[in-house]
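A protein record pairs a chain with a discrete description of its three-dimensional fold. The following entry can be read in just this way:
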Amino acid sequence: MSAPGAPRRPLFEQGYHDRIIKRPGMLDTIKRYMADNPLRALMRRALPALLERCLHLRIADRDYAAFGCLFLLKRAEKELVFYHRRDRLTGLPTEQTPAFATDRDRQLAEARQGVVLVSPAISNPERIVINTAIDQSFPVINLQKEPIDPYWKPERRRFEACARGTLLILSPWGIADELPTDYQRFHRLNDLAAEICDTTDATIIGLGDLAIYP
């Protein structure tokens, strides 16, 4: 205990946060995260333009937080990756249909040529396309409902894609306050992904238009 009148010091350093182990495997996940942290810090220092964290980015009329390669927003060619969970004609899971295989191959072929795939990757067929694109180092803009704050970091797969300059992660401001259910938020994320495909109008608040980047 501190002596009476002595200044009180914080128990933990700034930015410290703890975790309660709630499920099997969580401790191993935290250990891997801690082991990766020194590499992540070195990569962020070496590649600041590709691992940029921007907490206030305006795209069209919407505010976002972002992590990754902001240059991808200025690409004119973008394509929405959107699939329903089930095929409306057959009732089958969409990823089991020949139409999905054709669309998946077309979108990945376009991404191989530099088209940016944009999606929250919510449904299983969307995740198949986006994860394949990330693994093959194709350009991707990935929206998420989870907020990006000063201490947030993506998991290793997406972090490494950001470091390669092939991924930008976007989190729209206030979506949890605007929409009460995950179902509504997921649909809104797909609407926002479609808007991003149709614009290169993006501004970092306080730093000017993204055209300042080469």
Summary: Helices lie at 26-46, 98-112, 124-135, 156-163, 175-178, 182-197. The CA atoms of residues 118 and 210 lie 18 Å apart.
